[in-house]
Amino acid sequence: MATAQIVLVIEVMYFFEIFASGNSSGNLSTIPCPYLRNSPPLNVQDLVGSWLTVYTQPKAIDCFTLHIRATTDLEREQYVIKYGNFSGRVTWDTCFLEVESPLGKHFLQGNGSEAGVLENVIVSRGENGKFIVHDQSADQWTVYGRRGSEVLVMRDCMGEAAAAFARAPYWPSADELYAILHRSGIAPLAHGRVLCEPRDLPSNQLTISRYISYRN
Q1: Which pTM was predicted?
Q2: Boundaries of domain holding 205
Q3: Which residue, of 2, 85, 119, 181, has the greatest Cβ tally within 10 A?
C-alpha cells in the first residue's frame, strides 16, 4: 500500500505505509513494486463499497471504515481542469476509484490489470495555495471470498506494511482471516495484531484476538 496517509497526509500516510511482506516474485508491473507477488488481474469495480478494518501490520492503527466509490467520466474530466496532471505524474483518465476514510480522501490510479497494483494519488494544497501531489508508493490489492463476504488485502509495494478489510457488514472468522493472510504471504502471528473485533460475536465463537494469542 502506500505511505503517508489513507489519504490525508500524515496519519493516512501511516495507514498506507502499512503494507506488504513476503518475497518478491519479480516485478510484473510497470509501476515500481519490489514487493510484488504473483496475483491475477483485479477488477477495480470489485473494490467499490464499504470495508471494515480487520487487521494491520506492522503497527496497529485506530479502527475505521473505508469507503471506496467509482469515479465518473465527468468527474475525471473535472479533476484534469481543477488539479492538472502534475507534470504528467497523474493520469486522471485512469483514476477510477476514490477512497474515503475518517482521515481524508484520495484516489487510486490504475485498472488493476497488473496484478492488482494501484497507485495512490493524494492531492492537497501547498503553503502557496497551489495543489500538490504527494509522493506515495503503490499498493497491491487482492480480493478473496464470494460477493458480500469478501476480504480485501492491501500490501505496500515498497515496504513491510499490510492490511485486511472485510466488506461491511461481513466479519470473517478467525480461521478464514488466518488462511487469507497466509495465502497472501503475510505472517500475522509474527507481526501486528487484529483490530475492530465486533462486539456481537456469538459467545461460542473463538475471537480472532484469542485465536492469534493461542497460536503464539
Answers
A1: 0.77
A2: 12-215
A3: 2
